[in-house]
Amino acid sequence: MAVQSQAQAQVEAPSAPRRKPFYKLLYAQVLVAILLGFLLGWLAPDIAESAWVKALGDGFIKLIKMAIAPIIFCTVVSGIAHIEDASKVGRVGIKSLVYFEIVSTLALVIGLLVANLVRPGDGFTGGGDAAAVAAFAERAAHQSTVEFILHIIPDSLVGAFAEGEILQVLLISILFGFAVMVLGERGRTVRTLIDDLGHAFFGVIAVIMKAAPVGAFGAMAYTIGKYGPEALGNLAGLIATFYATAAIFIFLVLGLIARAAGFSIFRFLAYIRDEILIVLGTSSSESALPQLMEKLERLGCSKSVVGLVVPTGYSFNLDGTNIYLTLATLFIAQALGVELTLQEQAIILGVAMLTSKGASGVTGAGFVTLAATLAVVSPALVPGMAIVLGIDKFMSECRAVTNFIGNGVATIIVSAWEGELDRAKLARGLSRRVDASDVETAVTTG
Question: To the nearest whole number, what is the mean pLDDT of the chain?
C-alpha cells in the first residue's frame, strides 16, 4: 500500500519543467547566427552582399513589423477597455512623458560629458564622401516638430495599419479603447474578441520567432560584407567610446533607477537576453517589440501600462539615439577642429531633445536626427557627417539595443508608480529564464 501511495503521489505531483538543451535556446541560436554572419561577411563579402542574403534580414524584420500594429491595437484596446477609471490613461501618459524627458536628458548629458572627457575626434585625419550626406540633410530639413505632431493623426484608420505607423496606431487604439469602455456591459463581446485576437497575434509572433536566427544571420552578413571590418578599424575610437558610453548609461543610470524600483538591471537583462540579441543582430528595436510587450506583462506589469508606455517610448524614449547625437556632434566638431562653447553645447541639448522626436519612424532615424541637430547648431558641421557615415550601421545596433532596454525599464517604473506592478511576479520572472520562442505557451496558459 505504501508503494502504491508513493507511486500515486508521484503521478499526481506536477512535474517540474525540464530545461531545454542549450542548442534549442533561441538566444544561443541567434548568437551562433550572428557569429556565422560576421564570418561570411568577412571571408566572402561578394556572397554576403547579394540580394538574397540581404533579404534574409529584411524579410524577418518585415514579418515582425507585419504583426506589430495589430498587437499594439489589441493590447491597448484591451487594457483601456478593462479599466474603470478613464483618467488613468491620461495619468499614465503624463507620468511616462515625465520619465522619458528626465532620462533622455540624462542620456544627452552623459554623451556630452564623455565626448568632452575622451575627445575621440582629436587628431582625426580621415575623410568621407560629403555628397552621400546630402539626402540625409535634406530629409532632416523637411522634418519639423509641427509636422511630426500632425503626422500622429492618420489620414484614415486603415492607412495607419497599412503603413505600420506606431504612434498613429496608438492614437486609434486609445480612442477605440475609450469607446469600448464607455459601452460598458454592451462592449463585453468586443472586449472578448479583442483579447482573443491579441492571443492569436502573439501566437503568430511565436511562429515568426523561429526564423530569428536566419534573420540575424542575413542582417549581420550583409552589414559586414557591405561595409567591411575595416570600417570598424578606421573609426574604432568613436565606436568604442559610443559602446562604452551606452554601457555606462545602462548599468549606472538605468541600473540605479532599477535598484530604486526594487529589481536588478542584470537580472532584467538576463530576462530579455533573447530579444537583446535579436535587436543586436537586426539593428532594429522593432524586431523585438511584440516579445518585449508580452514579457513585461508576464513580469507583472499591467496590460494597460504596457500597451501605452512601450509604443510611446519607441518615439519619445530614445536613450541610445540621444547619446549618439551628442557624442557624434562633438566628435565631428573635434575632427573638423571646431571648438564648441558651453553655450553652443547647451543648445545641442535642447535641439537634440526635439530632433530625436521629430525623426522617429524614419528609416535611418539616428542619422537623420544627427543631420537636423548639426544644421541647427552649426551648418558648417553638416559635411562632417560624411566622416561617420560609413560606421553608422555599426553604431545603429548599439542605439537600438539601448533604446530597447530603456523602454523595458521605463515600463516597469511607470507600472510601479501606478501601483500596478505585481512584485511577486516580478521576483519570480527575474529569477528564471524564459525563452522567447515559448511565447505561445505562456499566452495560452497564462
Answer: 78
